[in-house]
Amino acid sequence: MDEKREQLDWVAAAEVEGEKPPEVPPHGPVVWARENLFSSVGSGILTVAGLIVALGFFKGMLGYIFGADRKWDAVATNLRLYFTQAYPEDQYVRVWVAVGVAMALAGLSAAIWRANGRITGYKLGGGSFGLAGGLLTLLLLSPFSWRARLIYLLVALVFIGIGQYLRSVRPKLEVPALGVIVGTLAVLVGSLWVVPYGKHTFVDGQVQPPRPGTVAMTTKLPWTVMLLVMIVAYFVGKAVRDKVSPGLAKGLLSAGWMLLLPIDYFVILRDPALDYGQVFRVDVPIFLAFAVAGSAILWWLSSPHRGEIGRVVAGAMVIGAGVFWLAAAFGLSVRQIVRIDLVMLAVVALAAPTFAGEKAIRRKFIIGWVVILALVNYLAMMVNTPSTVDVPGSFPLGGFSLTLLVASATLMMSFPIGLILALGRTSKMPIFRLLSTTYIEVIRGVPLITILIFFKIILNLFLPDGMVLGNEMAAILGYSLFSAAYLAENVRGGLQSIRKGQYEAAAALGMSTPQTTSFIVLPQALRAVVPPLVSGVIATFKETSLLFIIGLFDFLRIGYVVVGGQTAFVGSQRENLLFVAFIYWIITFSISRSSVQLEKKLGLGER
Amino acid sequence: MTGLESRADMIVCQGVKKWFGDFQALRGIDMTVEEREVVVVLGPSGSGKSTLIRCINRLEVHQEGRIFVDGIELTNDLRNIEKIRSEVGMVFQQFNLFPHLTIMDNITLAPIWVRKKPRAEAEALAMELLERVGIPEQVDKYPGQLSGGQQQRVAIARALAMEPRVMLFDEPTSALDPEMIKEVLDVMKELARTGMTMIVVTHEMGFAREVADRIIFMESGEIVEEGTPEHFFTNPTEDRTKLFLSQIL
């Protein structure tokens, strides 16, 4: 759409009515095949050879997957184990609440960011043809019964009909992309209620023989609710989006996405047993004290008239917080959270003179401080409260949810660390440059698996008395420090791509180095490195499978060891591995697809 | 025009010397620019014109001599530098707009964060300046969507938004297609009429003749000759000036 608008602008600027481009007659499939597949004898031979190889490959593959002696029951019966391992059944609603929060955020985001992409009838028809082609390939190459083939054929014919109708009758039809996505999801969820996928259950740890019929109520009901939550959230977002300021709404939602992981894990899934006496006697007063005193100090510091004295005071606060931290390490008895809050306040205070401004900016600054303080204190309180979820081992989750958790926590932690390292390595201050360079080069020189094992074995020796980190937490920490080094190098590439003129223009306007970095350099640098950053995200996600080696119950271990080791499913390892690989592929493929969208969107302002 | 009234010295350079490695770019520049004066710096490429004005807002650091801007000496003190930079606007040959920000954000960024202006006030000023440079309708576009001449006019508006006391122009029309040069020069002429103190490095002789109060001719890092446009174009004294003029006119 934007391209079109730009073209129009350009034509308007030229103020000339040019000739129309010559009409190109639509290409039939025969013409297309001649031009693309059989343009010469050589290419014809290659096409035929390629087709034979592809047919052979798919026939073998599909023959294997749908062969009579494959034990897919192992996967179908163990789906819960695959996704959440041993999360207790009577608490399972927590898992759905955690998923539901994400669904609600997704629905709200689609409304607030006005996802208004449209798909033409022509494209939709192409998709329909594609589906039909896939089904035809399936029914031709797979060892299905004739009855199944007939059903597949009928469905494929329906899709061909739809595709033909859309392409020839309604090619200009425009459907909202969101509708297509939700419609597809609705069909999938609806099929759970109608299509006899079969019922696979455990009763008291015993595998039940699969029964015909639709899937169990514990699967189809929650998924239906999830879809409804997303749709309702979308309409709620649509209703309120014109009544609130878009900046505020987007800010809140972004914060929601950032908090999704800690809230889901620490608050919903871990179900901490809060001691309310302690909360009101200690935690709330500490928070209030820092909120009030901190706001007052920050209000004073962020005044545009404060000048040099502000920087001196902020510097003194940083030193004070550091001394206090050290004193606590040497035996001064003080609650951990007081130390953390003090350091946070000092860091924010240091930023205050740089980002000082008129009242509205100062007010936002204060609100930001109170919100961050509240979140950190709340999460710290939750982390320090014992969990009531009764699971074997130290960690309530396993399988896919552990993989997802480790991957997302690693990404969230390594991003800020990587940014700081990249800035440090390109900074003019020798000490920061030396530290960052050393860190990056050392970490990049060590294999990830070494770091993971090291953190598993060593980390707890370095922690203060009484503090124990589970293996999962140790893995997240080690993995974050590892990916941060790689991320830093990617970001550094972006930093180096910023032309000198940008720095000079910012300097000529009197902007300070932190201002130039945050408003001019980083936004452009990050945009420039979206493709390598996305590769990094995909790699991080996939390499969580190394957790398998340090003995954690990640997705791969559940499939290969746990499910494969069940007496009822002896010899099902190949099926399990195929399933695990398939899920990994779905996730990484969707990440790479959405990054294409992101690149298109970000490219908009550049040109 | 000089001498009719007493005006404050805006920029004073005393014996400014600058080296790039072993190469001496400035060989002792003495120059004074008064308030509301328009000075055009001419000279062949490599003569040190750009280096001179880049020293004035400390994009380059001079190694010897002293530079005063509005009475404040340029030293290594960061506070001085930032203060002087916010008083001295600069327009670059390559525009150097921020490509990821809209025209409005390009103009208001520094007033909001450096001058600490309320956003509404900064935006009102930005609109006023865009009217003045003749492209108010482009306010929501990105720099990449504008022509070179429009981008340079935005760059002028961006510098003016800081309400500077001096404007430095570093070959502002050299990267432009010929048909766009005039629109930029017109904006600069209008600016000169409003009494802005300006130092302009350019190759536009027409502009120099019409607008300049004084012309400085530089070669090999030295000021060879200076005087009114009339003196400079009709009756230059130095041979090197005559040679330069004969080559370009």
Q: What class would the helix/strand composition of chain B place it in?
A: alpha/beta
Give the end-to-end Cα distance of chain B, rounded to a whole number of Å. Answer: 25 Å
What's the multimeric state?
heterodimer
Helix content of chain A: over 70%
Widest sheet: strand ordering of chain A = 1-2
Question: What is the arithmetic mean of pLDDT of chain B?
Answer: 90
Unreliable runs of chain B? none
Report on this model:
The complex is a heterodimer of chains A (607) and B (249). Chain A has 607 residues and is mostly helical. Among the domains of chain A are: 275-385, no CATH class; 396-607, Orthogonal Bundle (MetI-like fold). Chain A has 24 helices and four strands. Chain B has 249 residues and is an alpha/beta fold. Chain B is built from nine helices and ten strands. Classes of the chains: A mainly alpha (607), B alpha/beta (249). Chain A binds chain B through residues 6, 9, 304, 308, 355-361, 501-502, 504-512, 515, 519-520, 523-524, 527, 604-607, and chain B through 57, 59, 79, 82-83, 85-86, 88-90, 92, 94, 96-102, 109-110, 112-114, 116-119, 142, 144-145, 158-159, 162.
